[in-house]
Amino acid sequence: HKTVLSALSCPACSRQIPIFPSIPVVAASMSRPPPPFTPQNPTPAPRPGGQSPSSTLPASFSNLQISRAPPPFASVGPPQGDGPVPSSIRGPQAPPPGARPFPGSPSPPGSLFACPAPSVQQSPPFGAPPAAQSLQQQRPPFNGPPPVLPAQVQRAPFGGPPAASQPLPYGGPPAAVSQLAPFGVSPVAAAQSAPLGAPRYSAAQPPQFSGLSGAVSRPSYSGGSIPPFGAARAPSQQGPYGGPPQFGGERPGLQTPLFGAQTAPASQPPPFMGVRGANAPAFGPPGWQGQTRPAASSEFIVKDTGNCSPRLMRCTMNQIPCTGDLLTTSGMPLAIMVQPFALPHPSEEAIQLVDFGEMGPIRCSRCKAYINPFMRFVDQGKIFICNLCGFSNDTPREYLCNLGPDGRRRDADDRPELCRGTVEFIATKEFLVREPMPAVYFFLVDVSMNAIQTGATAAACSAISQSLSDLPEGPRTMVGIATFDSTIHFYSLKRAQQQPLMLIVPDIQDVYTPLQMDLILPVSECRDSLEQLLESIPSMFENNRVADSAFGAAMKAGFLAMKPTGGKLLVFQSVLPSVGTGSLSARETEGRSNISSGDKEAHKLLQPVDKTLKTMALEFAEYQVCVDVFLTTQSYTDVASISVVPSTTGGRVYYYFPFSALSDPAKLFNDLRWNITRPQGLEAVMRVRCSQGLQVQDYSGNFCKRVPTDIDLPAIDSDKTIMVSFKHDDKFQENSECGFQCALLYTTVYGQRRIRVINISLPCTSMLSNLFRCADLEAQFTYVVKQAANGIPSSSLSQVRDQVTSTCINILQSYRQYCASVSSSGQLILPEALKLLPLYTLALTKSIGLRNDGRLDDRSYWVSIVSSVSVSLAVPLVFPRMIALHDLTSRDDEDPLIPNPLTLNSENIQDNGIYLLENGEDGFIHVRNAVNPATLEQIFGFSSLAGAPNLLVLEQFDNVLSRKVNEVVNEIRRQRCSYLRLRLCQKGDPSGDFFRSLLVEDKAPGGLSYVEFLVHVHRQIQSKMT
Ligand SMILES: [Zn+2]
Questions:
Q1: Pairing state of beta strands 272-273 and 302-303?
Q2: Where is the Sec23/Sec24 trunk domain (predicted)?
Q3: CA 364 to ligand 1 centroid distance, Å
């Protein structure tokens, strides 16, 4: 039943892999049916037996602190089923689909209403830390944003809260009010002496377009000083998670802190306040009706007075059309973008945690909506009327309270659930089908020949090792690791053992896990041995000649190990999966020939090749396993097929192509670290409810859907957005309100079950002009981008581009036809709120996803990130930001870190300039021919571009320009919560052409110039109207 391998030799060359003598290699014990185990090594070398393994260690390993080999069989447990339940794996198996109750199902029985008034606690921002006071002492709050990386000393082991004396990063107040004018003057407008800072057009005086010169709308950067998340980042006492991550330098540990210079605090912008959601609508502040939300990309602070922060939930229109016909006429989409864990501004009040005890949160007994500020109490508070379904509920006896003269409950201001748009409730037993799961992290590292030789394995091991201290603190955090090539190698990390034990799973068609003994352990018990193992893995496999990669089988094996708990499966993959379950083929070659022969089915290469991985992913999701895939590759890996797994399980693909061992390890590490430390929830279920009159049409994002009403999210984090679209099933009365409520049931990384409830209530209107006036450009455009991405795998690119353009034209035509007062045929009339829609639409048709040229994998990757992208990142992804780097020294230290973005046309490019263009994923640095070599030397450390690598390592040198460039790059990374990859783009090189192709206002082989596009849109509108 048990076979012991004493050594493993390379199947290709029969050479013995050197490290194995030092690590006992034990065949995994088998679960049902015993796998046809054949020793990997046809001629097993003699076992070291009792002799010290250090004597057999190769030279490169002599630094390993291995004092004694464990007895050959000492650590091998009994066959599965006979042994004791491993202490490291607790809890019952996850329930079958459908068995999990959703916030919607159970209704607290009346007998449970026996507890005192709910206690309310101020939960730290991001809702992660423990709630109940009794727990507060035991558990540290969320670790706070990752500190500056290079300063290793600042990083407390286990990521505890930073010491009080240390200035916390990102706690600073936001930029000054003066920097926040919502509309500045665009460069073009400035030339025409438009009134500074004033909106150029209003609905009453629509902008006019006649001919080629004139009012061309561009994003306005008033004073250029509206960086999202604020320019000032002075230290403050802000709690943990006051902001997005700080990223380390290009080479972790080698550089001085990059965030040394902090802008002084400035006065705060006026907070954005939504309607007061008093349980008496009449008492909202007057004049609110139809207030628009601040732009997602702008700096703002939210004061929650009943409607949620627009960061968490944002509708494509801030007034809801009374009828479906009106919505259709407008041409606009009706959807909300939900980003339930969106990072707040550091100055915003934390989301409050409400504990109703055993009674559980108050809910409408008909539609199960949670109590919220828009529910109205009547009849001396004895009845409350649901704002979603209109049902009159009896107020539970324990929750009774008199109404004041204003008709509101007297306690409304003291109860967060009655005065805040977003609250969290502690989940009662009804929301639990098992103990809340622990935070489990299982790492899978590709050690096939290619991964080893490109340095990808070493980079992955280093990133994991450095991230261990960022894992959530506490006894419930568990880790495990396996490596794989054409077989899968598990490691038992039991502390008592002096060295890790390797267990090999050779069957990659019908995968099983070794004994579940010790494969996943509390991090506190195995950290040292894990670190040691991670250090050893690159050299253990340094002579590996196995080129095959059993990616699918390895994921399956990792999943089986995690099945009892669920958790996060983090996969580091470097080549096209070639063997075992879920193996893939190089469809790209096939695709090239198809595309060149004009095959109309070329888009099929952007669909998953078959259902194998999808089926696996559905099973993973059922058992609460979320998969993130880090693709560190130099070749085609079929991202379209691979990305199905993360997108079904609430994860994402990280893509490093072409992987560079020089520049990418820093990004890999920072990405992994943010992945672990960002605010997130586990084993989540989400449902969105809305007022009668509307119904949810569809959900879109990275999740698994089993029933029409709910989506399952094995994990959800602060970067993920879910789009929910709606359709009318009835009419609304004019002046009524339409409510939306998102309920997210989840488990914190510290094991507390909570329900985050996010509310918004919007006025209904029968006036088309109101819809246009209150349209949310960025949310609407995000909808268009996501719809386009959904269409790419199923339609030809030209069809998708046409679809995108006609969406824009239909909206503008509706406005022109029904709302514009001026009707001269020579004018293009744009609604003020949507005046940038044509520009963004043009940019979308030229984006990496929709342009004709480009690699299949690049397009698939684009599709995969759009699937979960937030509103604030969707726009730059398509419409990048360009800034000049060469003259940064002319700026004062008091200026905002990031200078005014330049419009995206080549007229802005000077021959002696250096430009950075960033889209939230990549930073492209374009160096012009006539650049002063001294400037080049200051920024890059070399005076000539000849031989410079395309993937750039930006170092900080001892000069002002270099410091400022580094500050800008790091500020962008912070804003985007993404460690941008930097690429050098040179003229006369494909990279230079690529840079030019991102200047979306220019005429390009792939598309019209901006002015040409406006003319095109105008003509289309005219022809539709006649
Ligand atoms: Zn209801």
A1: parallel
A2: 436-676
A3: 5
Which of 698, 641, 681 lies closest to 864 in space, CA to CA?
Answer: 641
Q: Which residues contact 633 (CB under 8 A, 6 or more apart)?
A: 456, 573, 574, 575, 656, 657, 658, 659
Ligand 1 centroid, distance to 665 Cα (angstroms): 51
Cα–Cα dist 322/527, whole Å: 59
* Cα of 396 from ligand 1 centre, angstroms: 15
692 Cα: distance to centroid of ligand 1 (angstroms): 9
Q: How far, in Å, is the centroid of ligand 1 from the Cα of 691?
A: 8
CA pair distance 703, 786, nearest whole angstrom: 15
Can you say whether residue 857 is alpha, beta or left, with left for phi > 0 and alpha for psi between -120 and 50 degrees? alpha
Give the 3-state secondary structure of residue 170: coil
Could you tell me the pLDDT band of residue 248, with boundaries at 50, 70 and 90? low
Amino acid at 110: G
What's the pLDDT score for residue 944? 86
Residue 616 CA to ligand 1 centre (angstroms): 37
Cα separation, 790 vs 723, whole angstroms: 12
Task: State in Å: Cα 687 to ligand 1 middle.
Answer: 14
Which tokens sit at 707?
A: 């029933």
Max CA distance (Å), the chain? 95
* Domains, the chain, with CATH or none: 279-366+420-432+679-766 (2.60.40.1670), 440-678 (3.40.50.410), 775-878+1000-1025 (1.20.120.730), 880-997 (3.40.20.10)
Residues 761, 458: Cα–Cα separation, whole Å: 51
State in Å: Cα 322 to ligand 1 middle: 20
Say whether pLDDT at 1014 is over 70.
yes
DSSP-assigned states of every residue in 760-774: EEEEEES-HHHHHHT
Of 222, 244, 235, 196, give the one whose Cα is nearest residue 298: 222
Distance, CA 404 to ligand 1 centroid (Å)?
Answer: 24
CA distance 117 to 398: 7
- 388 Cα to the center of ligand 1, angstroms: 5
In tens, the pLDDT along 27-45 reads 333 333 333 322 222 222 3
Concatenated DSSP letters of 318-350:
SSEESSHHHHHHHT---EEEE-TTPPPPTTSPP
CA distance linking residue 175 with residue 229, whole number of Å: 8
